[in-house]
Every structure is written in C-alpha cells, then in structure tokens.
Specification:
Rossmann fold, 3 domains, homodimer, DNA-binding
DNA sequence: TTGAAAGCGCTAACAC
DNA sequence: GTGTTAGCGCTTTCAA
C-alpha cells in the first residue's frame, strides 16, 4: 500500500503548534495564547499567528489540548431513545447552541425502547472516560447511583423534561399547561371532557402523565365539573395509541360520549382526530380535540394545542451549561419554560349541551 | 464555594493508571496492556489488574489514550438535519453498533433545513480537530473541497443514502426499488399510475428523486404504458407536501384521474391517503397508494410500501468502519441493501379500467 | 508581552 | 511476559 501522505504537498492534518510557532517566529506558548484567547498577546503577534495558522491549515489537536488543560469542549447528551419528536427537538436545540459555542456534542442513546438497553454501559463506562465537560439528560429519571457517578466526575449536569433529584432541571409546568388546555375546552362550553393520558410505561417521562391529569382535574373542579373516571384513558404517546384510546371513548352511547378530548401529546390527539373521522364524527362540530406539544404535524391537522418548544428547551439547557463552562457566557435570565395555547380548527363550542 | 472533592472518599474520576499499577504491583505498561488487550499479559496478572482497576473505579482518560495512540474510539456522524425519520433511524442504527464496540458517537448536524447552516463550520473546524477516527455522512452530497479535507485527515469515510464521489457508500438501489413499487401497481391492473417525486430542494438526497422517477418510468415502459407527464408531481417528502400534490392529481376529471399513486416516501404517501379521504375517495377502492420507507406510521395507515430499514443501513455503515478500525471486526459480508415489498391495505385492483 | 520548561496520562518501542 | 522510557501535542506556570 502506497503511503499517500508523501504525495500530498499539504499535510494539513498533521501541522502542529510548533510548526505555527516556527513560521511565525514566536514560541508555542504564544501561539497557544493567541489562538485560545487566554492570556495576553500583542495585536500584531496575534495577527501574525492567526494568519500563519490559517495558511498552514492548523487545527488544534483536541486530545492534546484536553490532556493539558482538562477542558474537552464537548458536551454529552443522554436520551432514553431517539424515536420521538420531543427528544430529537431537544437534541437539535442543544446541539445548535453548543456547536455555535465551539463545542462538540456526543450523543448517548440508552435505547430504552426495546432496541436494547445500554443504560449501564453508558453510565459506567462511556460517561466516565472524561470525554465530556458537562452532561444534558433528556427526559430521564436517574438513579441515585447514576447521579453519584456523575457527581464524582464533578461535571455540570442539567436535566430537560423532568426533575432529577438534586439536579437543576428545565421542565414544563405540566400541571398548569394541562389546566390551560382543559380551561380552553371548558371556556368553549364543554363539560364532558375526556382525557387521554400517558400510560405507566411512559414513566421515563417523570410522572408527566400524572401531573397533566392533575392539571386536567384541577381545571374541571375549578369549573365545578366532577371528573368522570369513565372519561379517563391512557395510551403510549403515539398516534396509534391515541387512535385506540379515542375509539374506546367515542364508542360510548350519545349522552355519555365526550364532546371534547384533551390528549397529553399531539400525536395522540391526532390519533383521536382520525378515530373521530373513522366513526363518522366531524371535528370540531361533534368533537373538540386539544393536544400538547405543537408537533410538526399539528398545523396540518388543524390541531389546537399547547405549544412547548422543546427546541428552545434544549437551547436553554445548553446555555445554562455554557454559563458554567465559559467565562463570558452568562446564565440565561429567563429560565421559566414558556407554553402557549395555539387555537386551530380542532376545537369549537359543543353542538349540544 | 466549598471544594466538594475532599469530602468524598471516592475520587474515582481522578484515579490514574499509575495508581492501578502501584496497587497491582506491576508497571503502567502492563496495566495498559491488560486493559486494552493489546500485547500479551499473563492470565494471572491480567486478572489482578482488572480487579484492581474495577475496585479503584479506574476508567481510562480518553484524551491521554488518544494522544499517545492516535486512536479516538469515536466516530463522527454528519447529518443534513435531524427532523426526518430516515436520518434519525440511520443515526440510531449506527450509534447502537458503535457503542457496542466501545465507540462514542459525536453528532454533527449541518442544519440545512432552515434553522441555520453550520456546514462550513463543521467541515473546516469540528471535523478537523481529529476527535474522530472515522466519519459517516448521511444523505449528503459532499463537495470536492469537503472530501479533500476529510481525505487529508486520512480517516475512513462512508456515506449512507447516496453516492459520494470516490467514497464508499451504502445506498438503496433506488431505480429497482421504484420499479418494484410500480410493478406492484401494474400487476394489480393499474395503468393510470401517478408519481409523487421529490422536489429540487430535496437534492440533499442525491438525486434520489430522479432515480426513483426513472424506476417508475422504466416499469411503465416495460409494461407498455406510456408515462403521462400530467401524472408526475413533486413534493418535499413531507406529509403535508404529499397531501397537496395528491389533491392536485386527484382533482382531475374522472377518466384522467389516476387510479393509483406511487409516492417516493411514506410520509407523502400518507398525505395522499388523507387527501383521497378528504375528496371522498375510498382507498384502495378508488385509489391505490404505495410509498417507500416502511415508516413508523405506515402500518397504522395500512400503507403498502417498499421497506428499506435505514436502521440496518446505519448499522452496516458502522460495521464497515469498525472493520477498518478494529483488527478483530470483519467487514460485513452482505453489503447489498435489502428492500422489500410490504403489502398492506392501501393497494388493490382498480375499480374500473 | 513573551519564552522556557514542566507536565497532562497514556501507549508503544525496545530491552530484558 | 514485563519493565523502562520516550514521546504524543498542547497548556500553563514561572521568570524574564
């Protein structure tokens, strides 16, 4: 096998700091300072270094830099699995902010969805290789052992999507968001309002199902409507799951049948809309439907929903970590996660009362 | 701020190889050999080292190991954006295989979907920090400059989802897959078969739209059916896009209206099914629909489709890279990407001919 | 503002 | 099979 390296005049990949120093006529220490911005360098020297580095195609060796400084410029993002709109959005939001700050993102996928279970492996090996400066845990309930391991690393850790004991977390106020959704329906005049919550298996999401049901019930009681257990169902957060649950609810005889459904995710809400159609019901005339998320497909289906921008949540998590890692980044001022009622075509006054 | 480190008896994160060597009573070289499996160590010594390392909670410092060996145990995966089922599936498949082999995965998102454009940044900075041992490029057409930069790094590179000039690539045989889809419809007796292809903006996907249209036309011609330009539309691979395109096609007067639609992605095919419903057409009685992907939602909508497991494609890409990086991993024997017709409820014989 | 030099923690020749 | 040792390429005191 021919060694291609000697055929190239440009051996960019292996230009090192000494080379830049030699060309510029300064020491490696000065090059390092000029390039990293840490320590003072005269404007002239800095300029010369920058030019030389760029001409030589010099890029710092991350490994050497890390070994010497202890900084990785890399953040680990841990997700329970990837096949969900919410996780991917959070990931994209965090990734974008981190990349912009010059940080790499290493993705750890626990694969809790049946494709495997890399949980132990990730916490006991991968994260401990000190390849990351900080960790973002998305919609995960960590065990005490896992938290201890991360603490031992002495790295900042922030959760998105639910409270981790003793860890700073960004999470929607699920109770209030659910109350808002329910109040929207109540305000339109509905009283037979069904709820499709999350099932037990969705506990990766921190009892989020429980909290949203709680918000739903609070809103009903505040409006002097007694929650009817027959109007409570659960599903797995997916569209087919919502479809099934809705079919069940809508199969009840008229009079007992709900005039509105509040589903705890947009995918389930869309399932409910499709179920209604298949039963010959017209949305919103015969049935109002509201979801939570503002999923990609929500507007296509005309779904009224509570928007919660997970992308923004990811960016916010990144921002707050960067504030700890970079001297010149300030912690985000507003750390309250916004949510917002978006009224589309799937909700209206009930036909009959 | 109190330094917590002294409060912990276990300073796991900072145990180094020298410590393990001291406890075991051997040299650091032997510890390194025992732990990495490179070079020979007596079974007894190995056992002792493993025990000590585990008891001390020793985990190798990736940076030091990389600096000394040149190996990162890390693979970069570059995606055009994340908001697409296909990309996420490929990512998940590759990630799982790589993690299993002890490799980390660093995700580079070019954000070509309007949320930004990190392309230059990624290729000119991130990838050149030599943090990765290899690169997987998903559905990307790389420029010569980009390829050159990666070549200069002297790292294995494999593409998934389309041919990159001069680079090994895993890609579906799009022409044949499209032909199979069209032949299914022809076989059922359809002749007025419309096609919803990908639009120009989808060129991130390597002229995949063109190839699939080609397969469609080949199949028609082979069956002595003249392709009708009026039956050709394009959309953006999304559900709403497919819906719009289908509405357009189905708006034609009976007789000119297609009896079947072949959409180049399942999401568009689902959009077509919904469009048909909204027009009062019954699928498959009045209209047959077939897609490509076997998307998560395909079975819910009863969609007949050409399955192309992107998860498997990701795993295969990972496997072939590992074969180059690890002495004991063999290149995958079968590198032909399988695709398969899955017949569900969205296709049947045409009502009239 | 700049340079010299001591590591950072590990791996891989090489010697035994 | 194991130990010695010279780096890997950078950052960061410390001195000038």
């Amino acid at each position: 096998m021919i060694d291609l390296r000697n055929l190239h005049s440009e051996r960019e990949a292996s230009v090192n700091i000494a080379e830049v120093a030699r060309v510029t006529g300064v020491s490696t220490a000065t090059v390092s300072r000029a390039l990293s911005g840490r320590g003072s360098v005269s404007p002239t020297t800095r300029e010369k270094v920058l030019t030389a580095a760029s001409e030589l195609g010099y890029v710092v060796s991350q490994a050497a830099s890390t070994l010497a400084s202890g900084r990785n410029r890399n953040v680990g993002i841990v997700v329970p699995f990837l096949e969900k709109w919410f996780f991917v959005e959070v990931l994209a939001g965090a990734q974008e902010r981190l990349n912009r700050a010059g940080y790499d993102v290493t993705l750890y996928n626990l694969n809790l969805d049946g494709h495997g279970d890399e949980r132990r492996e990730v916490f006991e090996n991968f994260l401990l290789r000190r390849r990351v400066d900080a960790v973002i845990a998305v919609s995960l309930e960590l065990t005490d052992g896992e938290i201890a391991r991360l603490h031992a690393l002495d790295k900042p850790l922030v959760g998105v999507g639910g409270p981790i004991t003793g860890v700073r977390t960004l999470a929607l106020d699920d109770v209030r968001a659910a109350r808002l959704a329910t109040e929207h329906l109540l305000g339109l005049g509905h009283t037979r309002i069904a709820h499709i919550g999350g099932d037990d298996a969705s506990d990766v999401d921190f009892h989020l199902p429980t909290k949203r049901r709680q918000g739903y019930e609070e809103a009903l009681r505040a409006a002097r409507v007694t929650p009817d257990p027959a109007l409570l169902t659960t599903a797995d957060f997916t569209l087919p799951g919502g479809y099934q649950a809705a079919k069940q609810l809508l199969g009840a005889p008229v009079g007992q049948r709900p005039t509105a459904i509040f589903a705890t995710s947009d995918e389930m809400a869309i399932g409910a809309i499709l179920a209604a159609r298949d039963l010959g019901l017209v949305v919103p005339r015969d049935l109002s439907v509201i979801g939570v998320d503002d999923h990609d497909l929500a507007s296509f289906f005309g779904l009224t929903t509570i928007a919660q921008s997970p992308r923004h949540q990811g960016a916010l998590a990144a921002e707050s970590l960067l504030a700890e890692l970079e001297p010149d980044v300030h912690p985000p001022i507003d750390t309250v996660l916004p949510f917002e009622l978006i009224v589309r075509d799937s909700t209206s006054r009930p036909l009959v009362d």
